[in-house]
Design goal:
By secondary structure, the chain is α/β, with parallel strands linked by helices. It has 9 helices and 12 strands. The longest helix has 16 residues, at 233-248. The N and C termini lie far apart (52 Å).
Length: 276
């Protein structure tokens, strides 16, 4: 079984754990990662299925697993072997989606000995941070509505600094840091399938950033609202050449065709002298 990079977001009830998970999933998905999540529901007797429905009747009749399929999604309903959550079985189930990163919500006390999972702990109030650090082993970051520098040596982020929290998470997994240096175009020209595959190969020593054709052959940079747009070499030239050709028609401008180009696109009113 391969080891999936896994992070748990734990903490107090109604403190904002789902908000943190939602931000991290969006952040890493936009970088091109396949992110899987799991949510722990501690309530006794809770069931995703509904008594009386066909799927419930299948399971009541003795089906060991039932797959519910609709035009837009599918779900597997299965009775766990025991009442205790088994981390290896959970990972095996998540592996079916072939994720690059797994973000758990909850599970703070569910895995017992699996204390090595790095945890982001979310608190309702700043005064609770110290006891939460003691409660959760391997806490790598704290999120609190009250700004603080750190507690017991653990950095604290408020909800306006979740981008910094994402950078902290990236530092836990070296290939995520490498991925942030790649264009995110997932063109596959490197031979590793996508940017995440190349990033993992770089960390393992099988490849280097020079294997990225988009970076090594880059001749145009396009930024949309400050975010760089990843393009493979073919698309780069489709954009660059017509742009240079158009500019070459302007009086007093000499274009040879070998120039590199930088384009910055912003919303109307945000240019020099503009206003929102």
């Amino acid at each position: 079984m391969k080891k999936l990079p896994t992070l748990a977001v734990v903490g107090e009830k109604e403190a904002g754990k789902t908000r943190v998970v939602e931000f991290l999933v969006k952040h890493f998905s936009e970088k091109g990662l396949r992110v899987a999540t799991a949510k722990h529901v501690p309530h006794e007797g809770f069931s995703i299925d509904t008594p009386g429905k066909d799927s419930w009747r299948h399971r009541e009749a003795g089906a060991i697993a039932t797959i519910v399929v609709s035009p837009s999604e599918w779900a597997v309903l299965q009775q766990p072997p025991s009442s205790k959550v088994d981390f290896e079985e959970l990972v095996a189930a998540l592996e079916q989606a072939n994720p690059d990163l797994v973000v758990l919500e909850g599970f703070g006390q569910a895995f017992g000995g699996v204390s090595q999972i790095p945890k982001v702990v979310v608190a309702k109030r700043g005064e609770n941070l110290s006891k939460l650090v003691e409660r959760y082993v391997n806490t790598i970051a704290l999120v609190s509505p009250e700004p603080k520098q750190s507690v017991e040596g653990v950095p604290v982020y408020d909800f306006s600094r979740l981008e910094e929290l994402a950078q902290r998470v990236e530092s836990l997994f070296p290939w995520l840091e490498v991925l942030s240096s790649l264009p995110g175009s997932d063109c596959g020209m490197c031979g590793y399938g996508d940017c995440a595959g190349l990033a993992k190969a770089v960390v393992s020593g099988e490849a280097s950033l020079e294997d990225c054709k988009v970076l090594s052959e880059k001749r145009i940079w396009v930024f949309v609202e400050g975010k760089e747009l990843g393009m493979n070499p073919f698309v780069q030239e489709i954009v660059r050449k017509p742009l240079l050709a158009a500019i070459s028609t302007l009086r007093g401008v000499e274009i040879s065709g070998d120039e590199v180009v930088k384009v910055e696109i912003v919303k109307s009113g945000r240019g020099a002298g503009g206003s929102e």
